[in-house]
Amino acid sequence: MGKRYTINHEVAYYECDINQNMTFPALLSVAIKASSDQSDELERGTDYINTLGITWVITQTEVTINRLPQVGEQIRIVTEPTEFNRYFCYRSYWVYDSEDTELLQIDMSFVLMDIENRKMSSVDAELMAPYESPQVKKIRRWPKIEKVEADQKQLYHVRYYDLDSNHHVNNAMYFNWLIDVLGYDFMTVHEPTYVNVKFDKEVLYGNDIESFYEVIEAEETKTRHEIRLGDQLACEANILWKKRS
Q1: How many alpha carbons lie under 13 Å from residue 225 in its C-beta half-sphere?
Q2: CA 217 vs CA 133, 161, 173, 220, 242: distances in Å
Q3: I need a labelling partner for 104 at 20 to 30 A (CA). Which of 22, 25, 95, 225 fits?
Q4: CA dist 103 to 4, 22, 75, 132, 220, Å?
Q5: Cβ atoms within 10 A of the Cβ of 204, count?
């Protein structure tokens, strides 16, 4: 396994929803900061890889939730680059409360993208050496994401502040589009237990996207999501929910 790295964080009120739970965009941003800080420490940060003409892009995120952090809470984020192959790098994150209880786990896959032609670049073993994660041949198989079968949707326009330094929509922003469509009444009585998100295509400034969704009521409530750019799939997700106690 690779080198582990830890940061501490106090959950601010502006990172939380009306239920005082940390939002997915805030949670993802703090997790990415942990891995970015590690990369900077290992001299493999954004500035360094940009000199090589490449940048990191998240392709998949899977979150298993015991409890979401709450406003004012002191949390600890531990991250580990677990393994890599020719095209994908895998990293895990664990979030703990002040009593070292695991609140949630995040697993992600990343690819390197050529900044100029926006195409996937192969992963060089020398680039990954400081992380000490093993090189493998197999590609991880993620749980299958169920497709949206309904036609419920909402239109969103990509704004300037939706973009990050790579000039494309920050991955955390996708969660706003995925969840906003569920509405106030749903969100105030449900809390997530599991999330599986796949990022298929870049969304750029000025694009108009449609967020499709479907709510499946069963023993455990499930929502299916797709973000579409015209006839192209940009992002897809399945989320499991439970009723708030």
Answers
A1: 28
A2: 41, 35, 26, 7, 11
A3: 225
A4: 18, 12, 9, 26, 20
A5: 14
For residue 212, give its domain range. 153-243
Residues 15 and 92 in one domain: yes
Q: What is the pLDDT of residues 195-214, one digit of tens each?
A: 999 999 888 889 999 999 99
Compute the distance between CA of residue 25 and CA of residue 49 in angstroms, rounded to an integer.
24
Let me know whether 118 and 162 are in one domain: no
How much is the average pLDDT of 155-164? 90
In angstroms, the CA 43 to CA 22 distance is: 30
Strand pairing class (120-121; 74-84)? unpaired
Is pTM, for the whole model, over 0.85?
Answer: yes
Q: Is residue 71 part of a domain?
A: yes
Determine which helix (DSSP H) or strand (DSSP E) holds 3, and give its type and residue range: none
User: What is the model's pLDDT at position 170?
Assistant: 82
Same domain assignment for residues 23 and 110: yes
Q: How far apart are CA 120 and CA 54, in angstroms?
A: 9
Q: Is residue 98 part of a domain?
A: yes
